[in-house]
Amino acid sequence: MDDWLIDDERLSIERKSILPGEGFFYPESLEETEREREAAERLADAETVVIADTDADGLACVALLEAQFDDVSLLPASPHDLDRAIDWAAEYVDQGTRVFLCDLCPDAAEDIEALHTLVDRADSVRWFDHHQWEPDLADAVETAGVELTVGDSDEVCTADVALAELADDFDERFVDLAAVTRDHDLWIRDDPRSDDLADLAHWIEPDEYVDIVREHGADLPPEATELLAERRIEKDALIEKAVERAELREVGPWTVGVTYGRCSQNEVAEALREQGADAAVIVKPAGSASIRGTENFERAHEVAAQVNGGGHPKAAGCKPDIYDDMLDYAHHWTTRGAVAKQAIVDAFKRLDIEE
Predict the structure, then answer these.
(1) pLDDT tens digits for the chain (355 residues)?
(2) Interaxial angle between packed helices 193-203 and 206-216, expressed in degrees from 0 to 180 and rounded to the nearest 10
(3) Which residues contact 184 (CB under 8 A, 6 or more apart)?
(4) Do domains 44-220 and 240-349 have the same CATH topology?
């Protein structure tokens, strides 16, 4: 396949909104080989390893740990490849390494099968999170020998948990960083800096983001704000496309806004809320989807759990298991996610409705 076919720079906003990014089209086998090589390099000789989600919350935890420990190595992970990150850590960390897992929640027992091996190799393993945990998975993690701390997902982000659990008198900028991160992660949005942190974490490399917030906290330097201003021109255009193609569906007692597109899901969800949606479903070109709730719908994690996902009562993610080959993805793009949308709407319908 010619590289120009997947070159984002040549696509119009309309087409970019419909298709996934370039990375989607690279075989996972090639990507995994490269990622494992990078993981082995990151983990070799590290005194402290942090397996963390690469959103602003997970990376704020990394910044806190770097402020406390001299030699910290980040192993980026996501909820969908948590098992792989734990496997690599169990294989490549040195004996006696401190290991932290931050802002990640296992979806199934298979995600944590290598924890026993990791605990045996590491000096200690601690896990900070604030998602909705299944009790049996929490028990399995603790039984493996991990010190698990899960905060209230309605009250704190994982950076709050790390700040409270780490034995250090942190500078005020780190306390502020956790508070601003919480403002976005819990979708409070009282502090305008919180959107800046979320966007910056999404648009630059994780290590670069950690360096910036470790030095500046939530008050970003001019070069970062300039980058944000430039990138938000396209971001706003993609949000507009997703909002334009949205539809409101009545599902049981709720009005659910459903749309499709490569976009920033939180802003799209907010726009749908303003149109009267109790919940929002944003299906992405790569096959995953975001589910956002409101004060009228706090069961997003229950919907996601039915379609290969999980999360919080008002914010969850999933990837319906409906893609068997590239023809399914072609159908997904040309129908603007019709099958995925229906699978998630059906999950809403299966919720028990309280009288």
Answers:
(1) 677 777 888 889 999 999 998 888 877 777 778 889 999 999 999 999 999 999 999 999 999 999 999 789 999 999 889 999 999 999 999 999 999 999 999 989 999 999 999 999 999 999 999 998 999 999 999 999 999 999 998 899 999 999 999 977 899 999 999 999 999 998 888 999 999 999 999 999 999 999 999 999 999 999 999 999 999 999 999 999 999 999 999 999 999 999 999 999 989 999 999 999 999 999 999 999 999 999 999 999 999 999 999 888 999 999 999 999 999 999 999 999 999 999 999 999 999 875 4
(2) 150
(3) 56, 194, 195, 197, 198, 266
(4) no
Q: Show the tokens assigned to 134.
A: 């299944």
CATH topology of domain 44-220: Rossmann fold (3.40.50)
CATH class of 240-349: alpha beta
Which position has the token pair 């309309």? 14
pTM (2 decimals)?
A: 0.81
